[in-house]
Design a protein that fits this description.
There is one protein chain. The chain has about 200 residues and is of the alpha/beta class. The protein contains four helices and seven strands. The two termini are about 15 Å apart. It binds zinc ion.
Length: about 200
């Protein structure tokens, strides 16, 4: 684990991308542009269609709002995983929110790099997921990989710690199914309070 700070593994690159994005976003130029600032404010409030307690911004799906080369408003989003069926719904929700706010025509730009990982989910969103009954991803998306120096065995993943129960906090949980309400989540059950819950899988 000490290698995380010195070697660029996919996990550290993803974590760095998410952190860099968060750090640079506060100072992004569109804060000073009234149209972009307004659009961002509107889009920040768009909820995730599958988990309405968190916004697409908090999940790291909404990446940017900018002026395109032709002057049109460009909304930059990234899919949470390849072929996520929620993306067309998200595009519709974005269109509806912008239209309702009286903002001009826009175009959706879908970017695949830097790739989305569960590291992009903000801390606030993790708390909201828990309160909603979904265990947030534990560790980072690459926490199961061996250290980069261990080239011989780096393909052998270490099983991640089971998620804590979002209701009672017990670590005494078991997985019932690899997929839950969506492919992004696994179905778990708390052995102490006996409640089933969704776990947002790290990747
Ligand atoms: Zn429990």
């Amino acid at each position: 684990m000490s290698a995380d700070t010195t070697a660029a593994t996919p996990a550290t690159i993803a974590a760095t991308n998410a952190a860099t994005f968060a750090a640079t976003f506060a100072a992004a130029p569109h804060r000073a542009d009234p149209l972009l600032a307004h659009a961002w404010q509107v889009l920040e409030a768009v909820p995730d269609p599958e988990i309405p307690v968190v916004s697409i911004r908090e999940l790291g799906i909404l990446r940017d709002v900018r002026h395109g080369a032709d002057g049109r408003l460009e909304v930059v989003i990234t899919p949470t995983y390849s072929g996520c069926p929620a993306m067309s719904q998200i595009a519709e929700d974005i269109a509806a929110a912008l239209q309702q706010a009286g903002l001009p025509e826009h175009r959706i730009e879908t970017v695949l790099a830097p790739a989305w990982t569960t590291d992009w989910i903000t801390d606030d969103a993790r708390d909201k997921l828990r309160a909603y009954g979904i265990a947030p991803p534990t560790g980072t998306c690459g926490s199961g990989s061996a250290a980069p120096q261990e080239n011989v065995i780096r393909f052998v993943p270490k099983p991640p710690a089971p998620p804590a129960c979002p209701r009672c906090g017990s670590a005494h949980t078991e997985r019932l199914a690899q997929f839950a309400s969506t492919a992004c989540k696994a179905l778990y059950r708390c052995i102490d309070c006996r409640e089933p819950f969704d776990y947002f899988k790290p990747y």
